[in-house]
Amino acid sequence: MNVLTDLQRCEKQFHWPAVEAAREKLATMLHPDFTEIGASGTVYTREEALETLIERAQQQDPPRWHTQDWHCRAIAPGTHLLHYTLCQGTRITKHTTLWQRDVQRGTQDWQALFHQGTPA
Q: CATH number for the 3-119 domain, one of 3.40.50.970, 3.40.50.1110, 3.10.450.50, 3.40.50.12160?
């Protein structure tokens, strides 16, 4: 599978996770040392980010968000930097996520190590 396509699919699960599998699935996708810097500049822990994602999953209507300008770069074996633009109505933000596979253990599952959203 193409890494960019694979990571796009992973990233989009954070935008609108399925309610029925949200906590378990999302918890496996966030590295134990995960941190996030939100578009507001607030730093979020793994648990805070997970709670926000669960709340989003429980909303009745999915947000009408659009993504574009996806780019992916390998920065080490099993580690890729993904960036893209997220359009939420009139709010435009640039996003970057550091994704990693545990190549030592041979796992094919991606985990997000770090994420940042920046107003554009």
A: 3.10.450.50
